From TrEMBL:
The lineage of its organism: Bacteria, Pseudomonadati, Bacteroidota, Cytophagia, Cytophagales. Keywords: Plasmid. Residues 1-38 form the Response regulatory domain. Residues 77-176 form the HTH LytTR-type domain. SMART domains: LytTR. GO terms for molecular function: DNA binding; phosphorelay response regulator activity. This is Response regulator transcription factor. Pfam families: LytTR. The keyword Membrane does not apply.
Amino acid sequence: MTTANPHHAVDGFELGVVDYLLKPIAFDRFLKAIGRVKERAPKSVLLSSDTGFVSDESRTLSAIGPVAVDSPAAEFIYLKTDKKLEQIHLHDLVYAEALGDYIKVFLPDRFVVTHLTMARLAETLPPDRFLRINRSFIVQLRHVTVLEGNSVRLSTGESLVVGPNYRDAVKERIRREQIG
């Protein structure tokens, strides 16, 4: 909550505000408040380079900027596609491909395109479930059916090249899942 009137603090905290900022707001104090908001961030997140997150309860936009999914329990994200917010279940996300400042997200039956960088997507997806295999691709591990040479084959039949800078990390990550 931001206000120029200090008398609203008690009312704000009774309503459950995360923090109370009195105007004029010092930048370091603003950053501290943002840290508190991120600690309480919901599991569902809007991924966009120009908007904030969507609360699972209220579905209202916040102007604090993108918030990463830090919880492996997160089950879906929101992507801004064609002037709408679309819920994407992480279980359905097969892989993502970079297209400059856009990402093409492949689902079992279709794909969606959103304005987002690969770096932002990579830092947002749960690392125990997703793996970056080169500069242009992130795959969901459960869809990797074969690792052969310098490529992975996905459950959808696509074969993607593992980049030279990612080979060791990809092989190590897949070997951790190996039995025998």
